[in-house]
């Protein structure tokens, strides 16, 4: 509906449909937000509990069974670190895109650099430094993919 709204004035029928759907969408978003918060709290509580149990000596059978959560807590921590890396790569790529757009506006980029996302000279330098063939460096490909993914996520 937002796409229709951007295209021009809405018909009365479209406006009524939009007005009907907006509260439903807001409610779904709120439910998802609450579900995610509950899940995150449970993960954090489990990680804290594992740390507490590791610090104790002479665990009971219940505590020993509870300590078996450790691999799951470690898995959650790794997942959190991967997400953090992905998010940072997306932000860095977004910043780089802004820089390249500014250079393009100033006319400081050649058409070849614009076509390659402004990365051809940088990619060659990085690849040469790392002993690889010229072209886009793997990190730049990952940053570009991260930027696309980050843009979709940020909506």
Write structural notes for this entry.
This protein has 155 residues and is mostly helical. The protein folds into two domains: 11-68, no CATH class; 82-155, no CATH class. The protein has seven helices and no strands. The two termini are 15 Å apart.
Structure keywords:
155 residues; mainly alpha; 81% helix
User: Strand-and-helix sequence, N→C?
Assistant: HHHHHHH
Distance linking N and C termini: 15 Å
Q: Tell me what portion of residues adopts beta-strand conformation.
A: under 5%
Treating each run of at least 4 consecutive H or I residues as one helix, how many helices? 7
How many structural units, i.e. domains?
A: 2
Radius of gyration: 24 Å
Number of strands: 0
Could you tell me the mean pLDDT?
A: 75
Fraction of residues in helix = over 70%
Stretches with pLDDT under 50, minimum 5 residues: 123-137
Summing up helix and strand content along with how strands pair, one would put the structural category as mainly alpha
Overall, the morphology is flat
Largest sheet: none
Itemize the secondary structure elements and their pairings.
Blueprint: H1 2-7, H2 12-55, H3 61-67, H4 70-106, H5 111-115, H6 120-129, H7 138-154
Summary of the model, kept short:
This protein is an all-alpha fold and 155 residues long. 81% of the residues lie in helices and 0% in strands.
């Amino acid at each position: 509906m937002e796409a229709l709204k951007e295209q021009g004035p809405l018909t009365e029928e479209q406006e009524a449909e939009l007005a009907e759907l907006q509260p439903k969408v807001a409610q779904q978003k709120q439910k998802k937000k609450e579900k995610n918060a509950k899940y995150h709290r449970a993960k954090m509580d489990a990680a804290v509990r594992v740390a507490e149990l590791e610090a104790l000596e002479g665990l009971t059978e219940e505590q020993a069974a509870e300590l078996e959560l450790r691999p799951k807590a470690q898995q959650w921590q790794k997942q959190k670190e991967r997400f953090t890396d992905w998010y940072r790569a997306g932000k860095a790529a977004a910043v780089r895109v802004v820089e390249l757009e500014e250079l393009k506006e100033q006319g400081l980029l050649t058409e070849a650099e614009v076509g390659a996302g402004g990365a051809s000279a940088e990619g060659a330098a990085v690849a040469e430094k790392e002993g690889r063939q010229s072209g886009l460096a793997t990190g730049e490909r990952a940053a570009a993919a991260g930027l696309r993914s980050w843009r979709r996520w940020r909506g």
